[in-house]
Design goal:
Distance between the termini: 51 Å
Number of helices: 13
Helix content: 40-55%
Bound molecules: pyridoxal-5'-phosphate
Strand content: 5-15%
Length: about 375
Amino acid sequence: MRNFISHRVQSVPPSGIRRFFDIAATMKNVISLGIGEPDFVTPEPILKAGMASLQHGETHYTSNSGILELRQAVTRNLKRLYGVDYDPETEILITVGVSEALYLALTAILDPGDEVIVPQPCFVAYTAEVVFAGGVPVTIATKVEDNFQVTAEAIERTITPRTKALLIGYPNNPTGAVMSRENLIQIGRLAEKHDLVVISDEIYDRLVYDGAHVCFATLPGMLSRTITLGGFSKGYAMTGWRLGYAAAPSELLAAMRKIHQYTIMSAPTTAQVAGVEALASGEKFVQEMVAEYDRRRRLLVGGLNTLGLDCFEPKGAFYAFPSVAKSGMDDEGFAESLLQEEQVAVVPGSAFGESGKGFVRLCYATAYEKIEEALNRMEKFMRRHG
Ligand SMILES: Cc1ncc(COP(=O)(O)O)c(C=O)c1O
């Protein structure tokens, strides 16, 4: 029988993250700093809104764009936080997480062979999804010396006549880097000069510890060429509800909605109702969770530096991304040995792109006491390998 799998799909390797989870799942007493999701359960009022919606019999499809009340709430929230204006009727689409929104954005804009510039290290789905959408990812390595920020000069060097889009995600997974407003403005100028569309994944916008998040669409001239992706998974601890949104100029959004109509119909109804409640009463919980993440961030980053695992100071999201150079191992070897010897699961940095080599990602959306215990185990590990 011939191989039925498309070359496109064959060309993408399986996610480097999953392998470690699969090994960890077979072991006892593992502390996982691997998976990138909040340990908190969704706050009570949001849960209740979802449950009540089911009990009221709201078990049907919604409008393809998502319930208007939620689109209006998203619009108000973006206005309140960043002062940006979107039309809930034509410029907001409710999606199955940022994951779906990302797929829609890329599929809506890419013709075969179109290039998308992707700074790395980055979320594992970015380059894979560009390929699935028929495009060509052109990666740029960001460096710890530059605080993992991508510069306009580095981007300009990679632009070709086939470049169509720039895909950025800040606060960043896996580094925790945020971009300075100045750098973003320069990138915006470049997008204008070369007529590029910018896909800005701002799923971690609420998880910023120093300073304020810059919403890319608010920068000069950027509203008309930016697709903003936002979500509920991280800020509101709602990963399992599968809810996100895209905000974009109406022509781009209509193209995304067309794909969404044919492939998804509508995001989960229960989740949409819960999302309305999240935006109505969730702010207090967001603040509490951010304060707790910040406490854990300091514990983890301080602890790693003490062990000689030099760690760049993450300013957003919930990841630490230390270098493992002191162990004398590469990142794969480090993650594998740490899991086998001390039952602490972390993710090798190379899972997030070439430039992640030599680093590992640790997620601190895990209980404070567990992070303390993980650091104790890592201390023993580093005594043997440091
Ligand atoms: C940068 C980034 N974008 C998007 C996602 C996917 O989020 P969602 O749960 O909204 O699909 C993740 C999840 O880890 C992420 O880290």
